[in-house]
User: What shape does this take?
Amino acid sequence: MKHYTGLIERYRGRLPVSASTPVIALGEGNTPLIELKNLSRLLHFDARILVKFEGLNPTGSFKDRGMTMAVTKAVEAGSKAIICASTGNTSASAAAYAARAGITSFVLIPEGKIAFGKLSQAMMHGAVVIQIRGNFDDGMRLVQEVARDVPVTIVNSINPYRLQGQKTAAFEIIEELGDAPDFHALPVGNAGNITAHWIGYSEAAALATATAPDNMSFSDKRVFSSKRPMMLGYQASGSAPFMRGEMVTHPETVATAIRIGHPMSWTQAWKVREESSGWFGERSDEEILQVQKLLARHEGVFCEPASATSVAGVLRDLEEGRIPSGSTIVCTLTGHGLKDPDTAIAQSSRPVSVDATRQAIESVILSNMD
Ligand SMILES: *Cc1c(COP(=O)(O)O)cnc(C)c1O
Assistant: This one.
């Protein structure tokens, strides 16, 4: 078994890198696919739901898949600085990969609207953190304007290398399952990730028809599939431009990672929906938090609020029969729950406080056993 260094090495043949490309990697990708066995029993659904836990990437979100590619290509092109607008996770990831590459990162975040874990990461990795009195959409516009005048590389998902890195999640799923699932559900913000997954699934399916298996290289062989999944994109109700059919001016949701009213990959995501015969859906903040808690309490999987939107969407669509029973469904859990400790603590019961005696501890234990 070769030492795993990251997704660029693993999928080198399917990514735009050459032998001389200086790879900037932190061991990203290779995340677990976990079947929701307890929730299946508890909620009596007749389908196989698996979560791809992207919270286990180096900085705790799927953004690392795209960032390893974007920063690698920026360094290859001689760039000395990168810039992004972020609801949090992109800034954490950009800061870490810039630190690894020895270049400067500038991150624009909406003041007061970023989860604390994410802010701490950007600060610790030495990014120049610029808080703007505006939202993500303002930040995104400003980044594009500034990058026209100043020599900085944009590492938001409008950078095409981001999507190239992120498409590898689809390859990993196909390798694990032996084929593509029937459905793939994701939370949708800027819609880069749903677009990237579709690129990955489409490449894997094209490979199956284009090349006879005997002629495939080893790495190609691992990522071919007989079909493509139907793609499901879920949004928070207060921030759901794809449900409204137009941009949203003042997006609001507890799921700050998807608090985006002007998705950059608007056109691409509609194309994904059409080509995959999938659909968009929305869930309220209350439903999203409820499912975040279900996953933590009954499956041992702690994701951030935005991530739970994919599972919340699928559970409802299963219940309503929109997703047929017997389906195999993969839900992306985009980020780790530790990113947003405030929201987690706010919805949990408080710890009990007792005197430091054996008797006090035993009485708590007895009153919690039945
Ligand atoms: C970035 C992000 C999303 C949204 O992904 P898009 O590619 O912008 O649609 C969802 N969840 C988390 C945790 C994120 O960090």
